[in-house]
Specification:
Shape: globular
Strand content: over 45%
Number of helices: 0
Structural class: mainly beta
Largest sheet: 4 strands, antiparallel
Order of helices and strands: EEEEEEEEEEEEEEEEEEEEEEEEEEEE
Number of strands: 28
Length: 371
C-alpha cells in the first residue's frame, strides 16, 4: 500500500470530509489531517482512513442513531494493525493483519452481530469467522460480505432480493458460506445498496441481488439469488467491479485487465459515461478516447456519478451531482450538473499522482502522493 495525502470533496453536512466543518466542498481540497494514509473508505455520511502505521481514523456519522459525529479524522483506539476497511450505508468494517473482522454501526438487520441491539457503537470482533482468515470486507445496505484468503465468500445480514447469494431471501445473523459458487477463487468483492458482485481469479464476473435497473448485467431485470456469471463479459478478464450506492437508479462499473471500463444499468443523467443517457441491460464499453486514451486502474461508483483513476494518476468523473461530488469547476456554475462523458478533474494538485479513490452517495476521498 502506497501512502499519500488525503484530499476530499462533495457533501460535508455530517462532517464526513474531515475538514473541521459541515461545508460542501465543490472542488478537491486537502483534509485537515496531518497524517499520511494508505487506505480510505467512504460511506453515506462517514469516512474511514488507514494511517501509515495501520491505525484507523474516522470522521462523520456512521448512522442516524449515532450522536457523536465528528468533523475531523480522529483515531478509533480499538483498531490496530488494520489492513482493509469498508463502509456501507450505516455500518463499517475493518480487517486486521491476523485476518480478523471488526464491525460497528447500525445492526437492525444483524449485519454487525447476532445480538438484538440496534446500534453497535464500538468495533466488535466477528466471532463467526474464527476458523478462517479474511482479507477483504464490503458493506451494503443491511448486509455484509467477506472474502477469505483462499477465495471463499461469506455473507450475513438482510437477505432481501437474494443479496446474500444464498439462493433465497432469508436473513442470516451469522456469517454463512456462499456454497453456490462453483469455485473457491474469488479475488474481489463489492457490495452495492441492494446487490453485489464478485470477481474470480480467472477474471469471471458474477453478480447477484436486486436487479430493478438491469445493473447485474444479465440482459434482464429479474432479481438473482445466487452469484451468476455475466455472460456478456465472458470474453474479457475482469479485475475490478464497483456497484452503485443508491437505492434507485442503480448501475455497475466494470474494469478489465486491458484498462477498459464497461458500464451497465441505469443511464439517467449520464451515469454510464457512454455519451448517452439511456439504460443498458448488458455491459457497454466506454471508449478509451473518453479518458484521453489513458488506461484505467481503478473505478468507484457513487449514487449518481462514477469516478475512474487512470494509470497516469489522473481522475475522471461522469454522471451528475449538485453537492460538489463531481469535483468539477464547471459544476459550480450549473445547477443539477450532469455529464454523459468522462471529464478530467483539473482541481487536483498538479504533478502529483492520485493513488487511491473511494466514493459514497455524495462525497469522494482520494489519496494523492506526498510531495
Amino acid at each position: 500500500m502506497k501512502s499519500g495525502e488525503l484530499w476530499v470533496w462533495g457533501q460535508g453536512g455530517s462532517g464526513q470530509l474531515g475538514t473541521k466543518s459541515n461545508k460542501v466542498e465543490d472542488l478537491p481540497t486537502p483534509s485537515k489531517s496531518q497524517l499520511s494514509f494508505v487506505g480510505i473508505a467512504a460511506g453515506k455520511n462517514y469516512s474511514l482512513a488507514i494511517s501509515d502505521d495501520l491505525r484507523v481514523f474516522r470522521s462523520g456519522v456512521i448512522c442516524n442513531q449515532q450522536n457523536d459525529g465528528i468533523k475531523e479524522f480522529s483515531r478509533i483506539e480499538a483498531l490496530t494493525n488494520i489492513k482493509a476497511i469498508a463502509v456501507g450505508q450505516s455500518h463499517a468494517a475493518a480487517v486486521n493483519g491476523n485476518g480478523e473482522v471488526f464491525l460497528w454501526g447500525n445492526n437492525k438487520d444483524t449485519q454487525v452481530c447476532p445480538k438484538k441491539i440496534a446500534l453497535v457503537n464500538k468495533p466488535m470482533k466477528v466471532t463467526g469467522l474464527n476458523t478462517v482468515s479474511i482479507v477483504q470486507v464490503s458493506c451494503g445496505e443491511g448486509f455484509t460480505l467477506c472474502r477469505t484468503v483462499d477465495g471463499r465468500l461469506y455473507s450475513w445480514g438482510r437477505g432481501k432480493y437474494g443479496v446474500l447469494g444464498q439462493g433465497d431471501e432469508q436473513n442470516r445473523n451469522i456469517p454463512s458460506l456462499v456454497t453456490s459458487l462453483p469455485f473457491t477463487d474469488i479475488v474481489h468483492i463489492d457490495a452495492g445498496h441492494s446487490y453485489a458482485a464478485a470477481v474470480s481469479q480467472e477474471g469471471e464476473l458474477l453478480t447477484f441481488g436486486k436487479n430493478t435497473d438491469g445493473q447485474l448485467g444479465h440482459g434482464h431485470k429479474d432479481n438473482v439469488l445466487v452469484p451468476t456469471p455475466v455472460e456478456a463479459m465472458g470474453a474479457h478478464h475482469v479485475v475490478k467491479v464497483s456497484c452503485s450506492r443508491g437505492e434507485k437508479g442503480c448501475f455497475t462499473a466494470i474494469l478489465v485487465d486491458t484498462g477498459l471500463v464497461y458500464m451497465v444499468g441505469n443511464g439517467t443523467l449520464g451515469r454510464l459515461g457512454t455519451g448517452e443517457s439511456k439504460n443498458v441491460l448488458k455491459p457497454t464499453k466506454i471508449p478509451l478516447s473518453f479518458f484521453n486514451k489513458e488506461k484505467v486502474s481503478e473505478i468507484v461508483a457513487g449514487t449518481t456519478m462514477c469516478h475512474a483513476l487512470t494509470v497516469a494518476g489522473n481522475v475522471f468523473v461522469w454522471g451528475s451531482g449538485n453537492v460538489g461530488q463531481t469535483g468539477l469547476l464547471e459544476a459550480r456554475r450549473i445547477r443539477n450538473f450532469a455529464t454523459e462523458r468522462p471529464k478530467k478533474i483539473e482541481a487536483l494538485p498538479k504533478g502529483r499522482q492520485v493513488t487511491a479513490l473511494s466514493s459514497s452517495c455524495d462525497h469522494v476521498l482520494a489519496l494523492v502522493e506526498n510531495e
